[in-house]
């Protein structure tokens, strides 16, 4: 500041200069006025610099407040993003678990369907064997009926015919029961296949 205003600390100290004998003498009015003007000029410069510094300080404070507000907002956004990320991770884990459960259920359904197919094939084979056995027995009965006159007396023929008819009815009833069981197993298999198709469609919809 001393270079700008044209005075220094010595000017303030040596307001009243010494004479040659070392004594004090009164300063000239012009000198005092010049120094006063320099002091006033320096004061104005200092005041302007103080105002400038205060303006810069106020601007810095406003910028700092703005940066703090922005930092708070960014921190809030970061927390929201982190919460959203945790939710998405949780949903992803649940979806993966659902997919695993669905796959396990589909595998069990496939195993059950395969078991039903095997049981139906086995039942058909068993029914075929029973039918062949029934047909053979029926042919054998017919052959026996042809030879009834040579084997049995005419008096016993009605009883034998009745017995053969009863046996035939029993065999037919057993066949009807087996056919009903086969039909029921076939309906269960179709129902399992429909359930599997619905589960596969639902899994595909969830995957999308």
TrEMBL record:
Biased composition (Polar residues): 199-208
Record's GO cellular component terms: synaptonemal complex
UniProt KW Ribonucleoprotein keyword: no
Start and end residues of each stretch annotated as Disordered: 189-208
Coiled coil ranges: 29-133
Biological process according to GO: synaptonemal complex assembly
Pfam families, sorted: SYCE1
Assigned keywords, A-Z: Coiled coil, Meiosis
Family: Belongs to the SYCE family.
Protein's recorded name: Synaptonemal complex central element protein 1
Lineage: Eukaryota, Metazoa, Chordata, Craniata, Vertebrata
């Amino acid at each position: 500041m001393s270079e700008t205003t044209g005075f220094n600390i010595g000017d303030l100290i040596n307001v009243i200069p010494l004479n040659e004998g070392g004594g004090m003498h009164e300063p000239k009015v012009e000198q005092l006025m010049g120094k006063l003007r320099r002091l006033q000029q320096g004061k104005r410069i200092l005041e302007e610099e103080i105002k400038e510094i205060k303006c810069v300080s106020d601007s810095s404070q406003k910028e700092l407040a703005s940066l703090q507000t922005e930092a708070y907002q960014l921190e809030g956004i970061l927390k929201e993003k982190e919460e959203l990320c945790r939710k998405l991770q949780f949903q992803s884990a649940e979806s993966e678990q659902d997919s695993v459960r669905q796959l396990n259920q589909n595998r069990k359904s496939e195993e059950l369907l395969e078991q039903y197919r095997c049981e139906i094939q086995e039942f058909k084979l068993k029914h075929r064997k029973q039918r062949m056995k029934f047909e053979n027995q029926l042919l054998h009965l017919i052959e026996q009926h042809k030879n009834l006159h040579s084997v049995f007396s005419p008096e016993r023929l009605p009883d034998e015919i009745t017995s053969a008819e009863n046996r035939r009815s029993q065999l037919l009833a057993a066949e009807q029961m087996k056919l009903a069981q086969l039909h029921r197993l076939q309906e269960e298999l179709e129902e399992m296949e429909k359930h599997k198709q619905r589960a596969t469609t639902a899994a595909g919809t969830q995957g999308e």
